[in-house]
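Open question from group meeting: does this chain pack into something compact, or does most of it stay loose? Before anyone orders reagents, we agreed to write out a predicted structure and look at it together. Recording both the input and the output here so the notebook holds the full record.
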Amino acid sequence: MTLLLGTPSVPTRLAPRRSSRKIQVGSVAVGGDAPVSVQSMTTTLTADVNATLQQIAELTASGCQIVRVAVPSQDDADALSVIARKSQIPVIADIHFQPKYVFA
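Structure tokens returned:
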């Protein structure tokens, strides 16, 4: 029995991409004819600015182009502006159940 653990092969025929409108997320084009962007989400507490920025730097170094951060509390919303200003890639706030944090 042979077990192959290498990189999977790319299918010879990919499904066509659905037509969409191109938008800019910071400096990254998304949709339309733009290439697929690499996105990820941090696992740190967003209120811990240094840990979150460190994780964003690591994600950026690994090729991530857009990062999401969770904003479930006011402390996280307060930290968001510092994180967004210091991040090298666009930061998107993942806000759940608290529309008031959108304005932060």
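Observations to bring back to the group:
The mean pLDDT is 89.
Helices lie at 49-61, 74-86.
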